[in-house]
Every structure is written in C-alpha cells, then in structure tokens.
Specification:
The protein is an all-beta fold and about 170 residues long. It folds into two domains: about 90 residues; about 80 residues, Beta Barrel (Thrombin, subunit H). The chain contains no helices and 15 strands.
Length: about 170
C-alpha cells in the first residue's frame, strides 16, 4: 500500500491517495475526519500500478503502469460526488518493456526502472524518451525522484545490490 497527498494550506484540507497494485482510493482529510472521494476498487486496473500523481488542483491524475505506459484521467467533484474518467493512454515511445518500478514527477516526467537494467526518463504527456540511464548490472527494483522541486535527481536500487543517484536531464 502506498500513499501520496497534496495539502491546501488555506483550507487545511489534504487529499490522500491510497493505492495497491491494481486499485486506488482518494480521500479528503479535513482536521480529524476522512471522506472517501473516489473508489477505484470496483474497477480493476488493466495492469499493475506503479505510481499515481494527482495535481494539487485535484482535477488531473496520471497513473503509471508496469507495461511502460501512463493513463491521464480527469477528476470532477460535483455536489460531493467524485467521478474519474480516463482521457488518454500514452506509451513510452522508444522502449516497449516491462517495468519493475516507477515514479511520476510534478513536472510530468516519468522515471521507469526496467527489467533490462536501465532507468528511463520520459515525458508522460507525449511518451518521448528524455534520457536512458545505464550503469546497474541487475534489474532495477525501485526508483524515485528525490525532490518534488527538482526532477534532476533520481534514485534507483537494483538486483546488483547497489543504490545509485543520477543527475537526469529535464
């Protein structure tokens, strides 16, 4: 289970996204109370989910899947009823492989750890490959952007028992 949140400083509310490999829920937290906004448990995802990013305005969501593609969703909240609908699916243009891990940065970049020992940095909106980082000698089990403010630092851990910090192009 994984969690991400975005806080509205003025209203003291937070959105909390809780996900597993194939499902997710979005909650609104205000003070000590939680309200379920969207439940994706009733709709099984088509692939394993590695990362979900929701914009601070709560209107867009990007989901990264194991087969190296993202789905862009719109979220609407009308009279307390939250709905989500998939708008488009974008595949990484230059690498069609299975991922072991991934992360989505606020800038729209995707970091994807592959079974082929490479870390791919690509644009979620277009699928364009920005950079291929090579150096691990094993499968990349996990990767993440190390700063919300700067997409230039990416960390990875591999089956080769190494942890690396990369300077990625933006």
């Amino acid at each position: 289970m994984h969690r991400d949140s975005a806080q509205d400083e003025e209203e003291q509310e937070s959105l909390i996204l809780v996900r597993s490999e194939r499902t997710f829920k979005v909650f609104k937290m205000a003070g000590n109370s939680f309200e379920l906004m969207y439940d994706h448990l009733t709709k099984s995802a088509i692939d394993t989910i590695f990362a979900v990013f929701m914009t601070p305005d709560e209107e867009l969501m990007t989901i990264l899947f194991a087969h190296n593609f993202v789905e862009h969703w719109t979220i609407s909240n009308v009279s307390g009823a939250c709905t989500a609908s998939m708008q488009k699916r974008v595949f990484c243009q230059e690498e069609n492989c299975i991922l072991y891990s991934g992360d989505i940065h606020v800038t729209g970049l995707v970091a994807a750890g592959t079974v082929f020992r490479s870390l791919l940095i690509w644009q979620a909106e277009t699928g364009a490959l920005v950079q291929r980082l090579l150096g691990h000698t094993g499968v990349i089990f996990d990767c993440c952007f190390l700063s919300r403010a700067d997409a230039g630092l990416v960390g990875s851990v591999s089956d080769d028992r190494t942890v690396r910090v990369w300077r990625a192009e933006k």
